[in-house]
Amino acid sequence: MTPAEDTAHYASKGTIRVLQLYPREMNIYGDWGNALVLQQRLLWHGYTPELLEYNVGDDFPEDIDIIVGGGGQDSGQIVIQDDLQSRAEHLREMAEGGTPMLVICGLYQLFGKFFKTKAGPVIPGIGILDVETVGTDERLIGNVTLTSPEFGEILGYENHSGQTTLSGGVEPLGTVSKGAGNNSKDGHEGARHRNVVASYLHGSLLPKNPAIADFLIRTAVERKYGTFVPGTPDDGFARLAREHAAKRPR
Ligand code: GLN
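^ thats the input. predicted complex w/ glutamine below
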């Protein structure tokens, strides 16, 4: 049964439109799984999900409730850079207006001020997040555990050469106890601004961290419909995945 057919079994509480940014170039280590988790959890909560994609050159869809974006190689980030700049103002307005967004790794970097790649080119960011990223010779790879004041323990996997430094105006997502996160020295991971959650973690992130998925969903529903009436998600898989992930070495 497709997720759309599934909704035929109950009266939907409303429709939530989820847009995945640049899945052609920015979808590494299964980051597309984040959109699939939102789709399934929206169904469990009794809402109808609509999954959309935006790639270079597309018309930007209207009435988007949640934005997700994944990671990619430096070469992919270079491919999307001009198109992303052409959408910068719109995305900044959406972020400042409170649209919930999840950006991972390569798009986290480009939601910041710039990414100076190891090979030399500087890829401009769109400045939603007050962060800067510089490519280094040290690749940060491995499993990560962090504690976030909002979401509790977050588990995932990182693989990046860019190291990100946060400025005063932006809070980290949390403090790492395993792995590196934003860079090799500060001991924190990711960034938070308005309803934007930015993180280096793949895995993908949301299957193991449903609290973040439900934050995005709850925020989107409250903005659109006033109140969020939760359903009863099946968290069994997430629990198993977390138990398994917690046992993994660095
Ligand atoms: N290309 C970027 C880096 O290496 C982002 C990598 C990623 O998205 N995994 O830092």
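The longest helix spans residues 210-225.
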